[in-house]
Amino acid sequence: MYDITPIHTSRGCLSYIVADPVTREAAIIDPSQEAGPDAYGDILKEKGLELRYILETHTHADHVSSARELRGLFGGKIAMHESSPLPSKDIALADGSTLSLGRGTIEVLATPGHTDESVTYRIPGAVFTGDALLIGGTGRTDFQRGNSTDLYESLWQKLMRLPEETIVHPAHNYEGRTASTIGEEKRENPRLQMEKETFIAALDAHHPPLPELFDTAVPKNSN
To answer: CA-CA-CA-CA torsion for 156, 157, 159, 165, nearest 10 degrees?
Structure first.
């Protein structure tokens, strides 16, 4: 039902334009200033799309969102989880919220763990998982009120219960990929091969360096 156009920056950030090809209504998921407004605007104009929503999967720590810039240029309402810190969001989402887009609906799944306000957006046949589920990995849990137990539950009680053919679109990939499937991740993702206690211990002990733009991105994306 929906067309999906991925936008991949040189630093591995992924965002997506989701559009109904009949009604021309569109949503942008996880837009980044690294891509620049023209990357989104050119596609909207080329395809004759009307921007209805700008959807954030969580408060990003490794890039500055362009959600408010795009809202000013093209319209559309910013939607985030109700507990996200951004005061200027237009729509506060909760688990089970739905957003009408064209002839279909976007479903919101609360998938906390990477952050406490992480969500996944589900459309027919696909999910946009932010940093909760990556291709061959998962997000970290050591800042922004992350929680390894919550992430495990989000993965196994929400995402891994989806049909295996469901396409997975993450918020980051550093190898040029923009999609996987639930079945592929269930079979091949090393973190999904771990027992619960092993997973929690491994993520609790995982403290890589902070993202390069952490001190800039978190304040700008929160205020």
So the answer is: 90
Q: Which of 72, 63, 11 is nearest to 40 (CA)?
A: 72
Q: Is residue 144 part of a domain?
A: yes
Q: Is residue 37 part of a domain?
A: yes
**Tally of domains in the chain:** 1
Q: What is the span of the domain harbouring residue 163? A: 3-208
Dihedral angle computed from the Cα positions of residues 83, 86, 87 and 93, in that order, rounded to the nearest 10 degrees: -40
Give, in order, the Cα–Cα distances in Å from 215 to each of 60, 67, 98, 149, 210. 11, 19, 33, 26, 9
Q: Output phi, psi for 158, to 5 deg.
A: -115, -65
- Nearest one of 170, 78, 80 to 132, comparing CA atoms: 170
Domain contains 215:
no
pLDDT tens-digit series, residues 132-179: 999 999 999 999 999 999 999 999 999 999 999 999 999 999 999 999
What is the side-by-side order of every strand in the sheet holding 167-170? Answer: 98-101, 104-110, 119-123, 126-130, 167-170, 180-181
48 HSE (CA, 13 A, CB side): 4
**Residue % of the chain over a pLDDT of 90:** 98
